[in-house]
């Protein structure tokens, strides 16, 4: 794999995952957290994305085949998960954890937001996973695999830097602005979830697209 193909792989991840476009979602999902908790959430989310994509690079297709899971089925599952999270955002329930006095449960909830839905399926979703699987299937030599692995790590670092700008957005918008964005993004996320489900259904059942 030459440099051009590695650049194509990296830019493909940037376009599919779009960390800048996910900033409003990140702001909404972490609106109940302190600044330190948001930074920790950003770190856990991007580390999770790197791990998920590296595992996918090495054994993604094998894992899906092992459980007889197709990409369309994975897409539908991700869409359903996004839709459920969007419903919580529309109802303003994401912040309920801040009333919990048990620190262990608060930490668990923070990590849950970082891994689900941020890391999976919003960032390392069906699109990113299928892209990595396709590239890995076409370039199985050790040099190419190492190059793609390095691209994934670099992407994780870039995305983490982007997420660190979220506190600036908090200071500009204030809590009222964040609450408005949370509900708007909830509606948009629900639309995205439905689109992802529809795309998976059309692929899984081609007759539906006719």
Automatic annotation (TrEMBL):
Its main location: membrane. GO terms for cellular component: plasma membrane. Keywords: Cell membrane, Membrane, Transmembrane, Transmembrane helix. It is found in: Cell membrane. The chain crosses the membrane at residues 6-27, 47-67, 73-92, 113-136, 142-163, 184-205. InterPro entries: Multi_antbiot-R_MarC. Pfam families: MarC. It comes from the Bacteria. The keyword Lyase does not apply. It is a multi-pass membrane protein. The keyword Ion transport does not apply. Belongs to the UPF0056 (MarC) family. This is UPF0056 membrane protein.
């Amino acid at each position: 794999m030459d440099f051009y193909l590695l650049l194509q792989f990296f830019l493909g991840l940037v376009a599919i995952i779009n960390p800048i476009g996910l900033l409003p979602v990140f702001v909404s999902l972490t609106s109940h957290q302190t600044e330190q908790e948001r930074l920790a959430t950003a770190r856990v989310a991007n580390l999770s994305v790197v791990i998920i994509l590296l595992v996918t690079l090495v054994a993604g297709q094998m894992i899906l085949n092992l459980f007889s899971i197709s990409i369309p089925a994975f897409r539908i599952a991700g869409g359903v998960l996004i839709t459920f999270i969007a419903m919580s955002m529309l109802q303003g329930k994401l912040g309920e954890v801040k009333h919990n006095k048990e620190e262990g449960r608060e930490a668990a909830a923070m990590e849950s937001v970082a891994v689900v839905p941020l890391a999976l399926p919003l960032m390392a979703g069906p699109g990113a996973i299928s892209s990595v699987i396709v590239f890995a299937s076409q370039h199985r030599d050790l040099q190419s695999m190492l190059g793609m692995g390095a691209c994934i790590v670099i992407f994780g670092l870039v995305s983490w830097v982007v997420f660190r700008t979220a506190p600036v957005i908090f200071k500009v918008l204030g809590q009222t602005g964040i609450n408005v964005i949370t509900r708007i993004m909830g509606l948009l996320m629900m639309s995205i979830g439905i689109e992802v489900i529809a795309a998976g259904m059309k692929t899984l059942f081609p007759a539906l697209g006719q």
